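Follow-up to my earlier ticket, as requested here are the two runs.
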Amino acid sequence: MVAGRFQTALLIEPAPQRRPPLQRLLREAGFREVLTAGSAAEARALLKEALVDLVVTAWEVPGGSGAALIRAVRQGGRNRALPVILVDTGLPQHAVVAAVKAGAAGRLPWPGTVQQLRGIMATILEDQHPQDSARAAPSPGAPARGVAREEMP
């Protein structure tokens, strides 16, 4: 399972009604712990104190934009290589492009599925460890390489 290398996720979502489905999705994908933040300030505080393996963020967050959050993660020492996935709730194309330029590793359409999330996570692992993905056999029932990934422009 892809999430074997991922233990803790940080979910940054200001909309309280979206948090439970996204938390459930992350747990179903194999994360043992899902930390949540509803604002940029909460997210920055959690990133300073907790070790996380993945950030899943909304684009619009109180106290900062998705792009600003992604850039902050990229500039932070131990979090510099931390993968960030953008939750796309119908964002305009320019916002998706800005997220990519800021360093987003993937885009998860709202509400998203476990298969989509696992596909994005598999792609992240391939990007981080290309030599491992060349040797790894797909798990039974897993989509073909790249199929579940949401392409970013």
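Run two:
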Amino acid sequence: MDTLGEDDDIREDSKIDKFEKRLAILRRQNRGKKRIDITEAELRDLSLYEFYWKYYVKYGKIHRSTRPVAIMVTPNMSADCANVTHARHELYARTCVVAYWRLMATDKRHKLHKDATQDLHYKPEDNLCLGHTQFAAPWLDRAEGRFDIGRFLGVRDLVEAFEGAWGDALMGMLVDPVLKEWVPNHVVEQYERWNPYFRECVQKGLQRGKDGERVRQERYYDDLKKTGLSDEEALRKSHELKPLSKVKSNKRLLAYVRREMVKMHEKAVLEQQKRAAAAGDVT
């Protein structure tokens, strides 16, 4: 303390600060060493959660964790905050995205998916699930306009990309087949349980506009018949169906899924309230 000046910062770096500086810390501790225990490649494409699962920072150095650790992701919120209509869903989503988003350059992540699925005969439309928010190696320091060689992608890049739209970012993370692999199973289960129409709406979005008009008309005709309409009226209405436009981008897919998911959720809640009211009248 005696050697510090009046303007020197004496605050301890937070866990996020250490994660953001992981490349600089590692380069400093590896400088001049012939035998290196941790390489830069190991720390490059990590989520915040994964970093503290595998490593810890002590006395200005990064060490491998040699025993199981208990990690608490904060702030803690009730499970129902996972529902997209909940008032605190945006905060819940921010917590999840900051903790579990795998910080890999977008083009590299897409190549990883392509290499993993090239023998599975995926259709081009399936690539709509891949997130297209652009993340790239931060070679240029945005604040000072100088080259920054001591930083990997970090939390600051997530904040810059998603501030004000964390709910969409969380949905995109769970739709993206690569990013989803880095999300703990209990988080995925919690989101799908509190948004029971989520996966169904994703499939509907991917399929939207692909069915032939005749198939759609026949399906609509059958639905109308079940409501009690005559053959003539059902046939007329089925032929008045307007063609559906295809979902052509990941951004539109997420918007469609959110819109349909909320619509189905609100409809289910309304029907539940009607049944409860009817049961109360009978009682």
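The only thing I checked on run two: The chain has a mean pLDDT of 85. Let me know what else you need.
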